[in-house]
Structure formats: structure tokens, C-alpha cells
Amino acid sequence: MAEVHYEKRGYVVLITMEGDNDLNLGMTTDLLYDRLAAYAADDELRCAIITGAGQRAFSAGGNLKSAARSGRIGGPSSVWDPSPLTIINGLELRKPIIAAVNGHAIGGGCMLALACDIRIASENAEFSIPEIKYGIPPGMGAPQRLPNLIPLGAALEMLLTGDRVKADQALQWGLVNRVVPQDELLDAAFDLANRIAASPPLAVKAVKEIVYRSREMSFRDAIRMSELLGYIGRETEDAQEGLRAFAEKRKPDFKGR
């Protein structure tokens, strides 16, 4: 039976997708979204890592054999009924998420990785959005996110061919931050997550807000938003604690206030 495991380690939570087989098919479902909602609501948690169980796949997307039997790939039942809002198709989550891509990230699995803020890949990772091969324009944010993450030509190559991109090519294009050996993947993800979690939580949220909102604004409006959030940030208890810790040459104790 498919499961999405939820393991808290200090300020970081590890969310592991474990499907009915080693491809972790069909994992971008309500169960995953419930785990992400729990992360978003937990004030003690400051960063999340999403990965797949085993060493073969992050998630290889949906079950195409089942779709072939039913004659339909999942999605809205009517053109007039948009899909429920999730992290993949536009739900905003204020805290950072790292994708630790431990193998195949195909279709919905790739779209989930794209929806995360940072991606770290194992050497055997592969990325693909193969919907075009089945006569379907890809959705779930892929045509919007990919051109923002990698060069336009590379994004169109992935979207128009559905071909798989290996980890080294993904790194060259900037689709992932780094590539590490499989047995070092979670250590690398936790090292990064813990470094993020050591920063003041309100400031981390503000940075994420500024970065993503700025993509939708004029440069001047984005600068003004940065100034406003910067002013608010300087008034927080964490900002005062950061200055005191610097002056006293000690590690700051941020409270998210």
C-alpha cells in the first residue's frame, strides 16, 4: 500500500513517498498534500525535504497502464472544473522545500520536483515530462516553471520531446543545484536544510516571498516590496537577537518572532 512517510528531525521534516512498487507511481495525491499542509502548519518546522523510497525513483509519475485501461489520464473531469489548488499547480507555501531526487523524476514526479524551491539529485537521477509522447500538452505548472529555471531552448526541448534528461545535463542546465552519489543524497539534503533552518524563520519566509513575487512585478515595484519587508524584518525579535549574537560572538537563538 502506498504511503507518504513524515519524519521530523529537529527543525526539518523528511517526507518520503513510498509507492506500491519501486517506481513510486501515483504519489502526487492528497496524501502528499496532507503531509505538506502539516508541514506548513507546524511552527516548529523550518524546512522540508521530499524524496522517494528506495534507490530507483523519486516518483515516476502516474500509472500509465491503469490510464490505458481506463482510456483516460487523470485531470479535471470537465474543462470548466479546474483542478484543486496544490503545491504543483499554484498553491503557495511560505516555507522552503528541498527535493532530494533519488532516481527517476518522470511526469508528475518531475512536476513535483519543479514545484520545490531547491533540487539536489543523485547521480542516477533522470528528469522527464513525457506527456507530449501521449498526445497531451503537459500541465501542472511545467510549461510555466521550466522556462524560469533553465534556458528557454532547453525547456522547450524537454517539453516538446518528452525525452529524459540525466543528472549531469540537469546540472549543466541549472535544473538542479548539485549532483551527489546516491548514498550521500540525504546527507547533502539535510546539510542544506539544516543550514536554512538555522536562519531566522520570518526572514526566510520574507526572502521566498520577495523572490517569487518579484517575478510578477516590475523591477521598481519589486525593490519597493523588498524595502517594505526589510523594514518589517528589522523590527522583529529575531533581528534584534541576530545583532546581539553578533556583538556577543555567539550563535543566535532565533524564535520566529
User: Could you list the spans in which at least 5 consecutive residues all have pLDDT below 50?
Assistant: none
Distance between the termini: 41 Å
Element order: H for helix, E for strand: EEHEEHEEHEEHHEHEHHHH
Rg result: 19 Å
Number of strands: 10
Number of helices: 10
In what range is the share of β-strand residues? 15-25%
Mean pLDDT figure = 88
- In this structure, how is the largest beta sheet organized? 6 strands, mixed
Spatial strand order of the main sheet: 1-2-3-5-7-10
The proportion of residues forming helix, as a percent range, comes to: 40-55%
Structural class: alpha/beta
Task: Label the overall shape.
Answer: globular
Question: Helix and strand layout, with pairings?
Answer:
Blueprint: E1 3-9, E2 12-18, H1 30-41, E3 47-52, E4 57-59, H2 64-70, E5 97-101, E6 104-106, H3 108-115, E7 118-122, E8 126-128, H4 142-149, H5 152-161, E9 165-166, H6 167-173, E10 178-180, H7 185-197, H8 201-214, H9 219-234, H10 237-247
Parallel strand pairs: 2-3, 3-5, 4-6, 5-7, 6-8, 7-10
Antiparallel strand pairs: 1-2, 8-9
Helix pairs in contact: 3-4, 4-5, 8-9
